[in-house]
């Protein structure tokens, strides 16, 4: 019987040791559920999974395997498990599926699909490929350096994405959405009571739909962009920091602008805020001012 099977059988009967490393075959996916605590994941170039836990004696950290999925969860014979802090070192190719309630999640260096969902707790991910899905009800979501299909959502905090490549879909309720250094032909962003910040490559033939109900919108437009920019306003206005070579005014509430050959389609909607079209350098400067704490 292999060491991995022996370990799983032993763990099913009791708690996982506080520091355990074991081999995993290529293609294995990790599923982790934690009600209360923190999860920190880093990657290495070994076909091994290291699990380090800090928790009370009332909790049992258990590991199981079903097909190609290794599952880790925290259980208690006394009802709701108490806090546990779990640190994982995983193969860089290992896909992750993480669910938490009052849980902070940090993932760094994984070159695989990443799925994280929390109720209360920030999510911070550096990396991820193929499909990256991050969702928190009342936590901040931060994603850096991802490549693939990117789906992000949060209800009560900001959502920040940097150095992203691939299709991007973002939904927020009461936080700002900040996307910078984005390389995509398909971007969909919607926030209800926050602002939208977007800066990236506007690809010929791409589709970019940005909507802010009660916040402002700042969009970086690189030199040489070919785009038809259609705006929709209720009580706001469009402001630009550069001359538009060609513009078509289709109405005070829906001015349309054409840059270059107009290949990309940009649909910008702001109910009660201003739409600002700026150069990338100005976008960066404004974003830096946003990040600087105000002094009384």
Can you walk me through this structure?
This protein has helices at 3-13, 280-291; strands at 19-23, 29-44, 48-55, 59-66, 69-76, 84-91, 96-110, 114-120, 123-127, 129-136, 141-144, 147-154, 159-165, 168-172, 177-191, 196-212, 217-220, 227-233, 238-240, 246-248, 256-259, 264-270, 275-278. With 296 residues, the protein is mostly beta strands. The protein has a domain at 158-296. A nine-stranded parallel beta barrel has the order 7-8-10-12-14-15-13-11-9. A hairpin with a 7-residue loop joins β20 and β21. Mean pLDDT is 89; it is low at 1-14.
Order of helices and strands: HEEEEEEEEEEEEEEEEEEEEEEEH
Helical element count? 2
Which percent band covers the strand fraction? over 45%
User: Which class do the helix and strand fractions yield?
Assistant: mainly beta
Mean pLDDT, nearest integer?
Answer: 89
Q: Low-confidence runs (pLDDT<50, min 5 residues)? A: 1-14
Range of helix content: under 10%
Please report the total strand number as a whole number. 23
Major β-sheet profile: 9 strands, parallel, barrel
* Radius of gyration (Å): 23 Å
First-to-last CA distance: 67 Å
What topology, given as strand order, has the largest sheet? Answer: 7-8-10-12-14-15-13-11-9
Q: Give the overall silhouette.
A: elongated
